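For the sake of transparency, this paper describes our internal protein records without simplification. The remainder of this section carries one protein's record, kept here as part of the documentation:
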Amino acid sequence: MKDLILGLLLGGLFGFGLALSGMTDPAVVLGFLDPLGAWNQALAFVMAGALAVTFLLYRLARVRPAPLAAASFHWPTATVVDARLIGGAALFGVGWGLAGYCPGPALASLSASHGGTLVFVCAMLAGMVIVRAISQPRANLHPAVR
């Protein structure tokens, strides 16, 4: 229960920060991606702030024995840049550039009822389900699906 409450509080704080910084408006993101047109540098400041906070907190987390709401940390173990990573990053970038949304701001924007947000979120969730289904080994699937 503590994990759920902590997750909701931190997720709410993150969503509030996205809304406060204007990142829930796709026009802000698309303006940043148009440096030769009406360039909007707001996203650069948000990214710089996020990198500074991440840098500090990552350093602090590395010296802790465990996180506040779990028995141990789950640090990434992948060290290879492979085709799946590059393809996923490219797909993410193309989607972000076309729609002006990435997952966090899209979810935060659902409450603001921007035009195509619900369509984007549904397509994003469908894509996540499809990738998970394709990526799972066949042995882990339900017998009816094998």
Q: What stands out?
A: The chain has a mean pLDDT of 85.
